[in-house]
Specification:
By secondary structure, the protein is of the alpha+beta class. About 25% of the residues lie in helices and about 20% in strands. Strands 1, 2, 3, 4, 5, 6, 7, 8 and 9 form a 9-stranded mixed β-sheet that branches. A hairpin with a 5-residue loop joins strand 1 and strand 2. The longest helix is centred in the first third of the chain and has 20 residues. The chain starts with 16 loop residues before the first helix and ends in a 21-residue tail after the last helix. About 5% of the residues have low confidence.
């Protein structure tokens, strides 16, 4: 090993190279836990739309080809050009770390994904990813491969509802396993549905035809009642919610 260390030896990683080189820094590991974390990142984005009052339904589907899709009926990722980067809002979200509307309190008062790396990390660690956005009656689509756009954001038709759909296949060059487990996802999605009262989350699997729907208007109260099933509670479940200025 050379003792000489100069500026020329400092490597600057561009775009999402750093994510692919050190994936565990972003998703914990490249095993079963990290694999499922990719889905949670996309679901968290949809949940933030639900918390903001713009989304009521989230669908997670395990496809027969090994890919998974997360679809919501929120506002849809912005498709107009970013004023500084000159690329669409969709491409910013999927190719730039620490990019998103979660940093602007005017857009999201409350958010679970404050670090702004979710969608771009999923993209970086996927062999391919396709995103479809419906906004203002128009449908847009873009495809990426290993984090890089291979098509421009294109208008591909019309649509009646707004929303975002992301479908991706985890990269076998990165992960030790690329098989998603229904029950692992079901446990997490059920908890989310309890915590976000009123949102409906549908989990489906093409190979088996299995489908489950999680929808709890009672929120956290319903979660405690679920935990108490088969037991004799010592008291009635009570719940209180309030807001003081901007803090809920």
């Amino acid at each position: 090993m050379s003792e000489r260390y100069t500026a020329s030896q400092i490597r600057v990683l561009k775009g999402l190279e750093g994510v692919r080189m050190r994936p565990a820094m972003y998703i914990g590991d490249v095993g079963r836990r990290g694999l499922h974390h990719l889905v949670y990142e996309l679901v968290d984005n949809a949940v933030d739309e639900a918390i903001a009052g713009f989304c009521t339904d989230i669908q997670v589907r395990l496809h027969a080809d090994g890919s998974v899709s997360v679809t919501d009926n929120g506002r849809g990722i912005p498709v107009d050009p970013h004023p500084e980067l000159g690329i669409s809002g969709v491409e910013v979200v999927f190719t730039q770390l620490h990019a998103g509307g979660k940093f602007d309190k005017k857009v999201y008062q409350i958010s679970g994904g404050l670090h702004g790396v979710g969608a771009s990390v999923v993209n970086a660690l996927s062999s391919w990813l396709e995103v479809e956005v419906c906004r203002d009656g128009r449908r847009y689509r873009q495809r990426y491969e290993r984090g890089n756009p291979v098509t421009p954001l294109e208008e591909v038709g019309s649509c009646e509802q707004s929303g975002t759909s992301v479908r991706f296949a985890p990269d076998p060059e990165i992960f030790r396993t690329t098989t998603f487990e229904f029950d692992v996802l079901a446990e997490r999605l059920r908890e989310i549905a309890f915590l976000v009262a009123g949102v409906r989350i549908i989990l489906g699997e093409e190979k088996t035809g299995r489908e489950e729907v999680y929808h709890y208007e009672g929120g956290i109260r319903a979660f405690v009642e679920y935990l108490n099933e088969g037991r004799t509670p010592i008291t009635q479940v009570f719940y209180h919610r309030d807001r003081v200025e901007d803090i809920e």
